[in-house]
Amino acid sequence: MSEKLNTNYVDHICIAVNDVKKAEKDYIDAFGWDVAYRYVDEPEKIRVTGFMVGPTAIEIMEDTDGTGEVAKFIKNRGEGVMLISYNVDNCESSLEVLKKNKVRLIDQKPRWFAEYKRNFAFIHPVATHGILTEIIDGKYE
Hints:
Blueprint: E1 9-16, H1 20-31, E2 37-41, E3 46-53, E4 56-63, H2 69-77, E5 80-87, H3 91-100, E6 111-113, E7 118-123, E8 132-136
Parallel strand pairs: 1-4, 5-8
Antiparallel strand pairs: 1-5, 2-3, 3-4, 6-7, 7-8
């Protein structure tokens, strides 16, 4: 029997879009939400707008140069949900649980998200039926 991965809540859901400014306006018009944050992650080639829905962030993101993972996702599947992220107390120990459970991982060790001072790691979409899945510790500040 598999060991239970203790998760706190859905941390964020990432939606791949062609035009983040248009999508941001569409989300504001539809839901009346306030933008919680915006950032550009050059190494990941993404531009992101985030909305907070309780403790969960809804992130809309576009590719910055047409060659990153978001662009590949949209080319293959069209716009839509690309990633679900689960908040955990400790990313490193959570990775160990996933390894014991023989989950196919992208990351064997946590990555550091310097801007938000959080550790995260990716689970391969094959293990979660086509959805890129992430575990992340810490909280949005």
